[in-house]
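fold description:
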Amino acid sequence: MQEVLFANTRAFTSYKLTVNRVRSDIDANSFQFAELELLGIAVSPPAKLSIGAGGTSGTLSISTTIAGTLWSSADLVTWRNDGPVAPGSAVIINIGAEGPMRFYQIKP
């Protein structure tokens, strides 16, 4: 058994294995191996956040590809929990001309 380590920072759906040498290059007419195991940590695709105009005047639509909680803040210090966010479901925010500006973030 031989272990081969290699750095891989990107996930792919398939990998190509190329064998350049065998025990006897002159006599070999085939190549055989019993097991190939690609080990590592499965990584989910990065979350996507979409922000756009809501369906009515004075609204903002926020959606994400992961489940999480929407948080808002007027000062980036004190955060308010504005409730859960389901993947693919938009949260509609009413934007009023009065009141302070608000910052929003979604945490998993």
Summary: The chain has no helices and six strands. The CA atoms of residues 58 and 96 lie 7 Å apart. The longest strand covers residues 59-64. The two ends are 41 Å apart (CA to CA).
